Structure formats: C-alpha cells, structure tokens
Amino acid sequence: MGNSDISERDRKVTWHPFTHQKEAAYPLNIVKGEGVYLFDESGNKYIDAFSSWWVNLHGHANPYIAEKIYEQAKTLEQVAFSDFTHAPAVMLAERLLSHLPTNQSRIFYSDNGSTSVEVALKMAIQYQHNIGTPKKKIIAFENGYHGDTFGSMSVAERNVFNNPFAPFLFEVQLIPAPIKGMEKTSLGQFDHALKSEDVCAFIYEPLIQGAGGMVMYEPETLEKILKLCKAHKCITIADEVMTGFGRTGKFWASNYMNTKPDIICLSKGITGGFMPLGITSCAGFIYDAFVSDDKTKTFYHGHSYTANPLACAAANASLDLLEKHELFEHVQFIASFFERMKKKYQNHPAIIDCRNRGAIFAMELKTEERTHYLNQVGRKISSFFLKKGIIVRPLGNILYFIPPYVINQAQLEELEKCTDEMLSLLPNL
User: How far is 55 from 51, CA to CA, in rounded Å?
Assistant: First the structure.
C-alpha cells in the first residue's frame, strides 16, 4: 500500500483523533463503502470489523438510509429547534419512546455520545436543584468511559484519556464494576455509598464497558444496584451509546434488567452510521421538575444542530430497518457465531480471557506489557489484520469485533481465520 496524494496531503493539514502523532502511519485513503466493506483508492476492500467506531449498523452506504437523507435534504436541512419543530424530530422521538423502557417520557436531542452524557448529568444535577435537594455526589464504575467533554470525562476512570485534565474534573466516587469475582464488593460499596444523603446520580455502561476494554458483567448484580439506587432516590443514568440498538442481542442492554434507568444516553448506531446525533431520554418525573412558573428552573442547554432534520431522517430510516424481524434474527446468528468462537479460544495459552455478548466479541491477549490501552501489541494486531483485508482497532491488548449487522457467515469465518493466524504468530507478531 503506497502513500497516495491524499494521504500525503492529509499528513500536512489534519489532526486525527486518538492517534499518536509521532508514530502514526499514513492514513489509508478510503473512497467507498458498501455493505460490510470499505474500499481504498487502489480498489482493495476491507471488512470493517469494528463498524467504524461502533456506529455502522446496516452496512456502509446503505441505499435505503441514503435515499431518505436525500429526500429530506431536498425539503428541509436545518431549523433552530427552540421555537420551531419538524416532523422527522417528532416522529423519531415518538418511535424511540415506543422502544425505550415505558418509564421514559421525553427525548432531548444533541450531537454525539459525549454530549448525550453531558446533557444527562446536567439533567440529573439540575433536577435535584429544582426540587430543593441540591445533592452533589455522582457515583460511577471504575474503568468506565463516557466521552471526552469535561463532564463525561469527570465520571470516567482517571486514565490516559483524561490525565492532563484531572485537576479540572469534578470529583466522582468510583466503585468497582460487578465483574466476575467482584459482585459482592461492588454491591457492598454501593450500599455504603448510597447511605449518604448527598448522592445525586449513578452513571453506568450497562453490561459492557466499551473503551475500558470490552469488559463484560452480568445483569443480576446490576439489577440489585439499580434497586438500591431507586430506594435512595438516586438518579440512574444508563450510557447506552455503544450498547443500544441491538449490539448486546436485545434492543437495549437495559432490557436485560427489570429495573429501568431514569435517564438513557444514546448515539453511535442511532443513524446507522450516516450522521452525528445524540439522544438523552428521561423519565416523566425528571421532566416535570423543569416545568415551573420559575424561569430559573428552565433547562438552559442546547446545540446549534439540535434535532437536525437530516440526522433525524437518517435515524428514522435506521429504525425502519431495525424494526424488521429478520434483522434481530441475524444479530442472534452473529451472537451464536461469536459464542462458538469464545468456546474455541477460551483455553488458548495466548489468551487471558475471551468473552462475548450479542454481536460483540472480545479477547484479552497475554503480553509482557502490563499496560492496557497503550499496549504496543494493539498496533501490531491492527497492522496484521489490515494486511489480511480486515479493519480492527484493538484497545491495546484487547482484540474485539463489533461488525455491521449485514456481515455474513463467510465474512465471519474470515475474521476467525485471521484470528487463528494472529494467535499462531504470538508473541512474535
């Protein structure tokens, strides 16, 4: 793969996210997407095994979603969503509420996953303020990640993502996630923390901590934690930015629990990977606290592109596809394939742990490096897979697959074959 003119020009003018600039390879010039594949300027095709940062659901350049965006673009591209409204936003809110837990009653629009979390935190904090109980403490799981704005960084693990900003982040109580072997510890620490009268909210990634290494845990302890929060009037915030829209095998990861969150954050897959859009939904009692003759209780938050009609049209089109029964049948097929892969690899000598839930598969590799995200094996794995025509973005020594739902058996078998070859070459990859 030679360095194209576009790649050369890119190196002079752009700054890529989450990329070590000094050692960064020349970026691959992608010119086309189709289904599970991305194509470079030389015509080489690559399986997008991580859904371009977990956003693509229905395959690249899905013609149905593209057509719906085109139709909307010919009619209305943008209007300020303060004193005005439009059909795509209203329709999307109605449809999302029909799928979300029944306690959810309102949809607030923003731009991405980080802003959906920022909105959720501000909602929870101002809710307590508006009802006259200005609680200040936020609880979150250790190892969590919720985005890169200051609020979302504050409720995350202090690590490479936010260390330079640590002095500026507000204090949060971090409690171990209820992973295997830590269930009693996690529950006990929650029970103790919630006895404080100052706990405002608890934010969590339900069942899978994404950027933390695809760490997975079971619903049973989370159910108990959520019940404790309810009993202590602690607002619960489910960050479903990654886990929403079928990734875990159910429409929402929250559907694995009977106790539902008060606030839910959505983004990534919401538009099928076409347009940026963030959603924060909330229960009726939270919204009601902002309805007052006192104008200071207004939720003074917004974004220029709030409820952008093009993004809403894309999300409505994506929902059309998600609501087809055969789609979730295929998600279950992917889940079964990954379950078989887990059983195959779980005792492999090069693997510490192998796990899956729904259409998400992850393995943690044994390496001499103790670091996680900065582990150099990640770059080697990524390069190895790319040469085989597969795009992955390991989290250090965590290799994972989150493919678009259109992936077929032959393509899944390519992922498995490449994984076999990669494991056979360790540690000398």
Answer: 6
Both tokens of 218, joined, read 């079971």
Q: Which of 290, 322, 354 is the last residue of a domain?
A: 322
pLDDT value of residue 371:
74
Per-residue DSSP letter, 395: B
Q: 312-324, pLDDT tens digit by residue? A: 999 999 999 999 9
Q: Is 0.90 surpassed by the pTM of this model? A: yes
Residues 15 and 83 grouped into a single domain: no
**Residue 270, token pair as written in the block:** 């919401």
Q: Are residues 305 and 342 in the same domain?
A: no
- Looking at the fold, whether 142 and 280 belong to one and the same domain comes out as yes
Shared-domain flag, residues 316 and 335: no
Count Cα atoms within 13 angstroms, Cβ side, for 54. 24
As a whole number of angstroms, the distance between CA 374 and CA 149 comes to 21
Whether 269 and 337 share a structural domain: no
Measured in degrees and rounded to the nearest 5, phi and psi for residue 203 equal: -115, 140
Please choose, from the candidates 6, 3, 44, the residue with its C-alpha nearest in 3D space to the C-alpha of residue 391: 44
Give the number of domains in the chain: 2
For residue 202, what are the β-bridge partners? Answer: 139, 236
pLDDT for residue 427: 86
Residue 294: C-alpha distances to residues 105, 130, 298, 372, 429 (Å) = 22, 10, 8, 49, 64
Q: How far apart are the C-alpha atoms of 375 and 383, rounded to whole Å?
A: 14
Domain that includes residue 112, residue range: 66-322
